[in-house]
Structures are given as C-alpha cells and as structure tokens.
Amino acid sequence: LDLSGDDDTPDYPTILNNLAVVYEGLGFYEQSADLFSEIIEQDKILYGEENPMYTISLGNQASVLTKMGKYDQAEKNYDQALQIFEQIGDTQNSDYAILLKEKALLLQKIGKQQEALLLLQKAVDLQKEILGEDHPEYAKALFNLGNHYLRLGNEDDAGVLLQRSMEIRKELLGENHPDFAQSLRKMAIYHWKKGNYKEADQLFFQTFANYFNQIEAFFPTLSEAEKAKFYNTKLKITFEEFNSYAVVRSQSNPNLIDHMYDYQLATKALIMYATNKVRENILSSRDTELIEKYNQWIAQKEELSKLYSLSLDELNQRNRDLDELQRASNQLEKELGAASSTFARTYEQQQLSWRDIQLQLKANEAAIEIIRFRKFKPDSSGIFTDDVFYAALVVTKQTQEHPVMVVIGNGRAMETRYLANYRNTIRFKTDDEHSYQVFWQSIAEKLTGIKKIYVSPDGVYNQVNIGTFKNPETGRYLIDEYQVHLLSNTKDLVALNQLKPKSGKNQKALLIGYPNYNLGLTVDSTTDQSLQRNQPRSLRGFMGLRREEKVPTGALQGDISLGLKTSLIQLTPDGHHITMLPGTKREVESIAEKYAQQNLTFDSLLYDRASEEALKSVRNVQTLHIATHGFFIEDTGPAEDQTESYVENPMLRSGLILAGANRLIADVTLGEDQEDGILTAYEAMNLNLEQTDLVVLSACETGLGEVKNGEGVYGLQRAFLVAGANTIIMSLWSVDDDATQQLMNYFYEDYLKSRKKFKAFSRALHKMKDSHPDPFYWGAFVMIGG
User: Fold this and answer.
1) Of 127, 302, 615, 662, which shows the fewest CB atoms inside 10 Å?
2) Cα gap 709→417, rounded to integer Å
3) At how many degrees (to 10) do helices 224-234 and 197-218 cross?
C-alpha cells in the first residue's frame, strides 16, 4: 500500500479493509487479524468509537478471531460492536444484521446453540426487510440459519432454507462463485443425511467442478505458501468429506470409487506440481525479462535462507528486516506465477482418469493410490470424528468397471502404535510381527498375479518402507514378492511412459562427498577421532529441538528458523563438532572409478571442494550424488517447561551438512556472501536441476520430513523434486558407512551398464539383502519419482 503517506485519510483504512478481507478469504487469518487491528485504530481517529465504521471493523476482526479459535476475544468484539449500534439507535441496517449472524456463528462453536438460533433468525428477518430477498447477504443469512437447523436436527426447515439460499446465489453470483460452492457442499451433506444419495452425488460433483475453477482462477496469483493455505483451509476438507461419503455409498454406487481416484489424480501433490509448472513455464518461455525476475526471486530466497540461521543479535547487526524481505519475496513470487500463466496455465487438470493410468500398465502391474482421510458423518454437526481411515485404490490391466477399493479403518493406531512398533523393530533388528498384517495384507489380497506395483503413498505410508514388510505366510519380504515403484501421484505413470529421461546438453554426473566440516577452522581434520570408526550418516534426528530465541512477532507469519546453530550443536555426538565420514570418501572414489571404466563424464568434489557454494552452482547435471551427514529435526511441540516455539517451517528442519559447517558451531563470524555449510531443504528448492534425471542423497534420514496428507513429505525429498529432479534416492533411517557404501556400489555398477535406474536399484537392494538379511541394512533407502 502506497498512499504517499496519507494514512490518515478515509481511503487508507478502506484499502486496508479490502486487503484484510482478501487475506481472510484465502485463509491467512493472522495477517488479516493484524490488519484489522490497524484499521480499528485508524477508525478511532477518523470516525470515533460511536460510528458504524468502527463497529464494522470490530466485527470483521471478530470473524477472523473466531476462525483462529480466539473465542473470548472475538465475543468481546461482537458485544462491543452490537452495543454501539444499540446505543446510537441504529439497529435497522444490514451491518447490524451481519454482526448478529457472525456472533451466532461464534456461539455455535462454544455450544450456545439456542442463543445462536435466536440471533440467526433475527438476522434473516432484518436482511429480508432491509435488502429484500434478491441479495447476496440475505442468501448468506438464509444459509447460516439453514445450516444451524441442520446441526440441530431440524432437517425439513434446513432443506428449505439451504435450497433457497443456493438458488439466490446461483442467480446473483453465478455457478463459479465460491459462495455457490459453499451452498452446493452443504446441500450435498443435507441430502446425504436425508438418504437422498443420487442428489448428494450430483451436488458433490458440482462442488468439485467449482473448486477446480477456483484453483485455475486463483493459483496463478498466489505464492506456494498461499496456495497451500488456500487449498487446505478452503477445499481439502470437502474432499475428506466426500471420501467418507464415497466409502459408505460405493456399495450401491461403485462409480464413486472412480471419482475418488480421479480426484486424487487432480489434487494429490497439487501444490508441488503447480510450483513445478510455474518454474517450467518461466525457464522455457525465452522471455529474458521474466527469467531475470525469476533469478531475482531465487536470489531473494537465498538471502532469506542465510538470515534464517542467524540469532536475533546477529540479525540485528546486519540490520535486515526479515518481514519486509519475506513480503517482497512473496510478492515477486506471485508476479512470476501470474506472468508465467501467459505461456501456460499454472494448474492443468488434464482430465486424467483412472482409465488413463490403466492404459499405462502391463498385464502383471498394478497402480495403487493410497488416500488418508478423517471420518465424517452427516449427523455429526459438521465435525470430523477422531477416526482416521486409509483407502487403497487398486487398478490393474484386468480391472473391469471400477478400481478396487480396500479400506483400512484403524488409521490412528497405524500412525502411532504400529508406526512406533515398525521403527523399533528396524532399530533393534527384531522380528516385525505386525506391519505386514496392519499396513499391507488387505491390499495384497487384491494383487493376485501382480509382479510390479506403482504406489503413491499418503500419510503414514510415507514414513515406512513397504518393501521391508515380511509376509508371515510365505516368510518373504515385500520386495521379494513385487517390484516396488514409488510415485508422488500415479498420474506420473503417463509421463513416465511417454517421456524420455531428462538429458540436457550436460550429460555428466557430479559426485560430492567427504566434506571437510572443519574448513575455515584451525582444527586438523585428519586427527578427527571419527576417522577411526564408522559413523552413521545422520546427526541425531527425531529430537524436537527448540530454538534458542523466540521469533519476532509477525515475522514470516511464524515461518522462520532462527538458532539453527543451537539445534545442530544438540544433534552432534559430542556437542562440539560434526564428525567426519571417511566412508563417503571411499564411496565417491569407488563410484568415480565406475564412471571412468564406462568412459562416462563425471566430476567429483571431495573435502574442501564438497561445499555448499559448489552445490549451489550446479547446473543441470544428469546425475547428482551427495554423500554426507543428513539431518531432520522433528517438531514434536513444546515441552511442558518451555515456552519457546519450535522451528515451524519443515523445509528448515531437514538438510545436508557440507564443508565448513563446524564454523557455525564454533561461532565463526561469516561474511554476508559466505555460506554456512548447512544446505537446508528450503535452500535445496532453489537449485537448478531442470535437466537432472537422478539425485542420490547418500545420507541418513534424507527421506524424512513433515508429512502433509495429500501433499507428501515436506523435506529434502520435496525440495529436490521442486528443484527439477526426476527421481530421488533417499533414506528413512540411519545406516553405517559400510552398508551404505556397499549398496551404492551395487547400484552404480548395475545402473551405469543398464541405464535402467529402477531395475538397478531393485537389484542392488536384493544383493544387499543377500549379504545383510536384516531390513535395517537394506531397507533404509527408497527411490521415488519418474
């Protein structure tokens, strides 16, 4: 906002109000509430505290506070605003009716249903009298009263009001308006509750058609964070509701299983695909001005990534405003998205269906989409239950009319007790008597005659290696019974079978390993005791470490990682330095020898050359191999005796350790242009890997991150895919040097001869299993991608 300093004019709070309303509509509640606080102060100056403009601002902020769960503060705002209207005798207006309606929605949430009903009825009567029956606000009042009746079990009155509201919205706003989608969704639930399933079917379908239009309209102008916020707060819940409905309804209408699969194709990993599409459009546009703006945005993100690792004192010394830099970066990202849509739409639905996936399969292959969703019942007052379900949708070449659906109903136990059991059996090398039965047996029953499976995981399935499940009946592991190919979305099968591997002008491989973590220090790395023993390639993860300092209020919407140094110190074995990994030197030299034997182009960067600067300068190598320490800091919430926030951005909680990283721990002051040797996933997203076919992260826990249901794992896996890589090899737990070296040698020996990466990886795993039968040794690494 730039009004040349005239922030005490009526235009300024009006513009602020419009922006705050937009933020609320997109789900950015904290930003919206903060703007309304500023507007309220402006209104006091311009109008005084007994003016309707002031009361409207109070009510607008209260609406946002309600959505944030700050009910007490919201109720105080509403009461103050309503009292002002009543004191000045101005209650016969639409704004007063809106306040009544909004307070009623708050009362619903805190259990005061009868009080809410009275306010909603009064709001409807007022809006009808003041605005008439052909007005969007009257339609909204009808909708809210109808929804309340539905909550109370008064279905007859609810249906009449909701239907009338939907008709008005359709006539006045059109079928593509978000308010019309809101009516469609609620009418679908109403008919579900009434048992009118055919009507519910069609209303759900119409709702999603509207949603896809919203995605196409809004996504080009949003940053990645804004896309995620918009989708998760506005659309994703309805897909969960539909999945609950489809599971129940599919027995009488199996066509709904088709729609479940097709909606997954359209929305799973949607944010990542949209981000990739923007990057691809820009880089292929030949628009030098647009590409330069893109490079400027990457530079801004690079600067942000450096500032994230600083303490507050260090940040103040550099006199950099993180909030302002983040806002500038977000704005530039949105401009890029809008500009790139000139060349191609950011989001392309492509109208793919499960039949398109089936066409890609051979006779002994299956595609499996795994979907996590919470249970929703139409009589649950619009609230999800605590139950979590997983649905596996299976398609084979022989599938006739509909995908086969397998429903697993103990999702909460899978994500807690059984996941902990799986990790413990891996860690302590004990027999796993539960995982196959819990996670896989019901799916396996639908895979008769299948030898290869393409699996798109969701939820807890991102945190386990299904290949390590042991069939109790046969005594064989899953990788002995199937070839397992992991995909972000099974729609990748179309591209996998249609496109050749990425092969830019630069065909060479880049091998990075054995970083000198003491680069820039006086310590002699050759005397490091770690050289005398094998070390796991991870700093101790799963720690839930806290930051040293609190984040400044409002900084980066809470999305900032200060005090990375403190976290790394706590992750190191002795609390003083990151230990060297001698096995990574042997690994890189062995792989380099194999490239040389095949007369293939490669470069290897060891010791001082294995730096963050070198990695960031990579441009489109065909294969990128990185052998070093990896880390993942799990966010488990604050301990009872701590008030500090945890690191909130998951892309800042995982990364790779490169040369010079011990300088950070040793408090060495770095220049503004120097790298700290810690490549976070946030930074890895900025790499230029547009023509890179394969990235091998030969470090521990590189596959870990924060699981975002429906969107995958936020960590290094996502970062390298967003950077442009086709395929990632990554790890789920810590394995010592020797086992990792052996696996990588097996893989490259096969891969460089066959050039078939998935088959080479599968054969390498089997060789490892022959020499090291326990899954701890061979099951840590997984491959995902196209």
Assistant:
1) 302
2) 19
3) 160
